[in-house]
Design a protein that fits this description.
Elements: E1 2-7, E2 10-15, E3 18-27, E4 33-39, H1 42-56, E5 60-65, H2 69-77, E6 81-92, H3 95-98, E7 109-112, H4 119-135, E8 161-166, E9 169-177, E10 184-190, H5 199-213, E11 218-224, H6 228-236, E12 240-250
Parallel strand pairs: 10-11
Antiparallel strand pairs: 1-2, 2-3, 3-4, 5-12, 6-11, 6-12, 7-8, 8-9, 9-10
Keywords: Acyltransferase, Transferase
Organism: Streptacidiphilus jiangxiensis
InterPro entries: Acyl_CoA_acyltransferase (IPR016181), Bact_Acetyltransf (IPR050832), GNAT_dom (IPR000182)
């Protein structure tokens, strides 16, 4: 069996003239590399994972369903270890169930519904939030999804963001992905100097209330299980844990 790097982001395993597996790598906007391997046989998987990881050098990540013991073991054979655990939570949207009143806001706060925020201030707020995360807990605590974006672009679709404002100043946002089967709460973020006022709760209440009015009975969110504030926020809204992922990393 031969493993060849046929493109910068793709490796191929062949047995004679037959392709028996492949591996691909994607780079997140925060710079992390995430590797995926597609192979039917363990020996092929092992060769692809080890070869691609060695070629890439540096830290390499992957995401695995927490219940897939066989796949976790395969990545561990290639030198990967658990870096973080991320729970998947289903949230009801009905305010009568969540206990979150979307009309009950902290003093002086207004929520701009999705699509109504000005793009310039929204992008500036996003940059502030990202810089604060980088300077404190780090991006390793953020959701592990791989979203390929152009260099320097972090807000792909401004119409997905609802924003908390006070006197025209942008203080925090919630991002919702309108997935047809079950919408996804992608991120709730508040500027560091504005925390502790209930803005995160207000933003979540707004997002869930809007989804309820649009006919969605539930939404889902991914939460880093070492983030007690985020866990408390969704659990107080009646979220139930429906599964989880492991982010594995090879130094």
């Amino acid at each position: 069996m031969a493993v060849t790097r046929i493109e910068e982001n793709h490796w191929q395993a062949t047995q004679g003239d037959t392709v028996v597996g492949g591996a691909d790598v994607s780079r997140r906007p925060d710079g992390r590399l995430f590797l995926s391997v597609d192979a039917w046989h363990a020996a092929v998987f092992d060769r692809l994972a080890a070869t691609a990881a060695a070629d890439l050098g540096g830290p390499v990540h992957t995401v695995v369903d927490e219940t897939d013991d066989e796949l976790v073991a395969a990545w561990q054979r290639a030198g990967f270890t658990v870096g973080r655990r991320e729970g998947e939570y289903v949230l009801p949207t009905d305010p009568a169930v969540t206990g979150l009143d979307p009309d009950l806001l902290p003093p002086g706060i207004e929520i701009l519904p999705a699509g109504q925020a000005q793009e310039g201030p929204l992008r500036a707020l996003d940059r502030v939030v990202r810089d604060e995360i980088s300077a404190t807990v780090g991006w390793h605590v953020m959701p592990a999804e791989v979203v390929p974006l152009p260099d320097g672009v972090t807000v792909l679709d401004p119409t997905r963001y609802a924003v908390a404002t006070r006197a025209g100043e942008y203080l925090g946002f919630v991002r919702v992905a309108p997935v047809p089967r079950r919408p996804r709460i992608g991120l709730v973020a508040v500027r560091a100097d504005q925390r502790g006022q209930g803005l995160g709760r207000a933003l979540l209440a707004h997002a869930l209330g809007a989804l309820h009015r649009a006919g969605s009975a539930s939404a889902w969110a991914e939460v880093h299980e070492a983030n007690p504030a985020a866990l408390a926020l969704v659990e107080r809204a009646g979220a139930r844990r429906a599964g989880g992922n492991l982010e594995l990393v090879r130094p």
